[in-house]
Amino acid sequence: MAKILVIDDNIDICQLLERFLTKKGYDVETTISGKNGLEMVKNTYYDLIFCDFKLRDMEGRDVLAKVRIISPGTQVAIITGYADVKIAVEVIKKGAFDYITKPLIPDEIISLIERALAVKKESKVQSVTFEKADPKAKKSSDKSEANSDFLKGSGKESKKLHKEVKLVAPTNLSVVIYGESGAGKENIARLIHDQSERAGKPFVAVDCGALTKELAGSELWGHEKGAFTGAHSEKPGQFELADGGTIFLDEIANLSYEVQVGLLRLVQERKLRRIGGTKDKSIDVRILVASNEDLRKAVQENKFREDLYFRFNEFSITVPPLRERKDDIEAFAQHFLELSNKELNKSVEGFDEEVTQVFMEYVWPGNLREMRNVIRRATLLTDGDKMTVSALPPEVVYARKFNFTESTSDGSSSNGHHKASKAPANLKDAAAEAEAEVLRKVLEEVKYNRTKAAKQLGIDRKTLFNKMKQYDL
Fold first, then answer.
1. pLDDT digits (tens, 9 = 90+) for 49-83
2. How do strand 175-178 and strand 315-318 relate by DSSP bridges?
3. What is the rounded end-to-end Cα distance, in angstroms, of the chain?
4. Which helix or strand (DSSP H or E) is residue 49 part of?
5. Helix or strand or coil: residue 48?
6. Domain 3-124 has CATH 3.40.50.2300
7. What is the per-residue pLDDT across 321-369, written as a single tens digit (0 to 9) for each?
8. For the structural domain made of 328-470, what CATH number should be given?
9. 235-236 vs 222-223, strand pairing mode
10. CA–CA separation, 151 vs 190, rounded Å?
């Protein structure tokens, strides 16, 4: 029986989830405190945690970070009161399995639980397979063809991307993969591995953004029994698990300077020593790294070691954001719809014209990851043969309606509405501006009736009030 913990300062939500999930056969515990929840995690193993993003005593992102240290095998899903793209991108980047928005939908909750448990089961099966793998195992010509989560795309940018993958995959070069969060950097790393001579050997992905300075050494190099307090048994590190295959270090720039020093030694000598160990172990691993920031700039700012950068930068690939892959948006959307139909046991055939138009005009700040989440939720809410805009999150629909067209040279937009000529400094600022504009327009439509505005936006009054305060509305 899977064990689930719910951390939410709304007692009603705790009780609702406890009753609902208990009836579904899960062992459920609840708490209204983030700190108390962390104490519970120290004493009990949970397969999955539902944690509210806004708790009274701490934020969900902080709970997530500590759970990753205390119980790395536990999946965490963040509950948020508003379908906020910024929150979704941030928490998933920091290691959350997924996020779910209020009001909570029973089928969506069950779907998330089943996916989280399936991922845990799959990871265990993979580790066993790696241990028993035949060193002479025949590699597939393109293992990604069998990966139902992956679609190459056939547009101009996609063809250029996969031409580079095909070029570097058969070599043993280290590769730096650049791209925004959610753009599919890990998929590209897996594709490189699957098209290399190492296919059939381990592929190990490590989220460096989730590794603290204290945790990183044990996670990467492993440790011996008794190496430190709590080291009750020996543990192989991720590099050992990847021996013979490929290791993918995601968000490599987040590693501390001390860890970078140890990593440089490993890269240079191809040897590692577990924490508390006395002997070096030779390893044969191809290293692929990813970053959503320019490592050259990080070197100039003394955030990343120059010698380590040159070791990794034998070849570089940039994964274009979804907004630059317009030729593929309809194909990606259809692909995610098919995956969602299979996952949710639905039979939605396609999208109506307005939905397709929304998808083409929306900027997708969360990239492919955001698109998949949007389509999965919309599929769940669709009853007919085709998906309509009523099933889409408000921020996706309204973003293309209000003042988000390209500006002309005089600072006004092409649809005649005034728009500031200065572009947002980054995607986070752009998303904030978009959200503020959506809130402002809806509030004006309902003459600042908060109850009507909250209902139209699909959020509660408390969340609306906080957003109005945040954007000075």
1. 999 988 988 999 899 988 987 887 899 999 887 55
2. parallel
3. 47
4. strand 48-52
5. strand
6. yes
7. 999 999 999 999 999 999 999 888 899 999 999 999 999 999 898 899 8
8. 1.10.8.60
9. antiparallel
10. 12
